[in-house]
Amino acid sequence: MTAARSARLQVIYNKTDITADLQPDLVAWTYTDNLSGNADDLQLTLHDVSQKWIGSWMPDLSASLQAAIIREHWDQAGKTERLALGTFEIDSIEIGFPPSTVTIKALSVPESGALLGEKKNKAWEKTKLAVIATEKAKAAGMKLFYDTPENPEYDRIEQTEETDLAFLMRLASDAGLCLKLTDKQLVIFDEAKYERAAAIATLSRSSSELKSFSAHTTSIGCYRACQVTYYAGKGKKAITGKFEAPRAPKVGRTLMVKEQVASVAEAQRLAKKKLREANKDSTQVSITMVGNPQYVAGVTVNLSGFGNFDGKYIVTRATHSQQSGYESSLELRRCLEGY
Q1: CB neighbours of 308 closer than 8 A, spacing ≥ 6?
Q2: What band does 251 get if pLDDT is binned at 50, 70 and 90?
């Protein structure tokens, strides 16, 4: 007899495995993995007719959850796959009836931690982005993974009535970089590097794994070129750099950016990144498919059988969920070529 395919969520609460305790009451679970800009999150929905989950079993706010998706006998009998989702902190609990349910929500960024906890004021002089990010990660009890050779320098930079997370997001965005928070790590990276990675799979229109597909393309908010200008020194000498999108139409808008740069080369690099940031969401795709833990934010896939929407895409959000069955919902955008 062939073993039946199965998928389940493993949950560890404050270092205690509670998977078996959850299982009889678990109605549904959802895990959302974001490429940049938002924390990863985990949500559990439980039956609570006995009211134990709002009584003696009610979890503590700010308690730690570690989770993993386990898939068995999926591709072949006896094969087990495990996707560790990382560590989360419970930030809210909701109840409702009828029927009696409890929903537990948790984030990969502690609400009580230094990154989100308070607005701060501070100034730095003659420093670099990686130095500031290291300082902020350490204060939050996190590790920094600085996954880019680019390290913007600042003569002076100020954090004014901003949380550490908002401040770091601003610096990363200004530099054309991305920031992700996951599993007690603060990650700063260049999306272009991830887009250049080899595709892990080809998703075909004819695949039996595919449940739904939608796509959207637009020219709204897109530019053919970007020009960065900075007036440096007492004489206000202009430092200018420009980048034009490969295969861009001869007629189109130019994005004008005024930000501090130290050289023409730096201005050109920033122009390239700012143009990428403006144009990257022009073609987007949403896919729902049979659950597969290999699809996480940051991996690339090829689409086939979708006409002009065929090509290479990067996963910007992967939502894994289970209610009647295990599903993966992916948000993708077309990889930009040449920049």
Answers
A1: none
A2: confident
Quick one: pLDDT band at residue 247, thresholds 50, 70, 90? confident
Q: Which residue has the tokens 């308690």?
A: 63
First-residue to last-residue Cα distance in the chain: 52
What dihedral do alpha carbons 189, 192, 193, 198 form, nearest 10°?
140
Domains of the chain by start residue, with CATH: 6-107 (2.30.300.10), 120-189 (3.55.50.10), 194-218+282-334 (2.30.300.10), 225-279 (no CATH)
Q: What pTM value is reported for the model?
A: 0.89
Report whether the peptide linkage leading into residue 152 is cis, meaning its omega lies within 30 degrees of zero: no
Q: How many CB atoms lie within 10 A of CB 241?
A: 21
Instruction: Report which of 108, 81, 53, 164 is spatially closest to residue 297, judged by C-alpha positions.
Output: 108
* C-alpha 166: how far from chain center: 15
Inter-residue contact 126 to 137 (CB < 8 Å): no
The helix/strand/coil state of 242 is strand
| Alpha helix stretches (DSSP H) within the chain | 19-22, 114-117, 129-139, 164-174, 191-195, 264-279
CA atoms lying within 13 Å on the CB side of residue 304 = 9
DSSP code, position 307 = G
DSSP state of 309: G
Single-letter amino acid code for the residue at 270:
L
Which tokens go with 74? Answer: 């999926």
pLDDT tens-digit map of 150-159: 899 898 999 9
DSSP 100-150: TEEEEEEESS-TTSHHHH--EEEEEEEEEHHHHHHHHHHHTT-EEEEE-S-
Number of helices (H), then strands (E), belonging to the chain: the values are 6, 21
pLDDT digits (tens, 9 = 90+) for 5-61: 889 999 999 999 999 999 999 999 999 999 998 889 999 999 999 999 999 999 999
